[in-house]
Amino acid sequence: MSTTPNIVITHLDQIRLQRLIELGDSPTLERLEEELERAEIVAPQDVPADVVTMNSDVIYEDLASGQRRTVQLVYPKDADAGLGRVSVLAPIGAALIGLRTGQEIDWPTPGGTRRVRVVGVTYQPEAEGDYTR
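RE: above sequence
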């Protein structure tokens, strides 16, 4: 039996994501809203550097297949699969937000539930002093 990992969301990300949630209705949006409700909310300057925030570059692993991917977690308007930019409203994007390096989560996708693990956060705007992205 798996447990749900603790997640950390910046106050700015929380505000922006809540606005997106209010604009739509889908299972992914409902799950993302549940994640925001249980998240620890912190000031952008206080988020640990190994947490996946918006506009972070993250390496994750699908634990069933062993496949690793590097993606940038972005808002829907910036999504571009060809460039590795995954929307936070895509199932895998919603799964990654707020996780820390080493954490795993089970997340429903159209192909079934997937277990993913954050291998590393190679870029995080807040860690670079950018608190507005």
